[in-house]
Amino acid sequence: MKRLLIVLVGIMVIGLFGCGQQKYNLELDGYGLSANKTSYAEGATVKVTYDMIATDTDYSFYLDCEDTKLNCDFENEAYVLTFQMPAHDVKLSVSSRNSMEYIPDEE
Questions:
Q1: Whole-angstrom distance, CA of residue 39 vs CA of residue 86
Q2: Fewer CB under 10 Å: which end of the chain, C or N?
Q3: How would residue 14 be classed by pLDDT, with cut points 50, 70 and 90?
Q4: 3-state SS string for the chain
Q5: For residue 81, how many C-alpha atoms fall within 13 Å in the half-sphere facing its CB?
Q6: How much is the pTM?
């Protein structure tokens, strides 16, 4: 009876913790990007913030995949980026350009 109870508890533990959903990695490429976690299950909502904002700079954010839509909002003086985690690893990048900088026309 005791062995049966141990086996049943073991099966329950494996069922609860051992067979979780596959998780995929989020790589943040750029200073100032932050997320609570670095791996997510497929379909999970990923939330990344970017708060290193200068007033005279334009920012662009990119996901390295075409099968996922990146949403960008501005809340509490920070960009808030959200998307649904696809069934593969992704990299989120940021680039910036000083919009007040003089760039001469090339001829």
A1: 11
A2: C
A3: low
A4: CHHHHHHHHHHHHHHHHHCCCCEEEEEEECCCEEECCCEEECCCEEEEEECCCCCCEEEEEEECCCCCCCEEEEECCEEEEEEECCCCCEEEEEEEEECCCCCCCCC
A5: 24
A6: 0.73
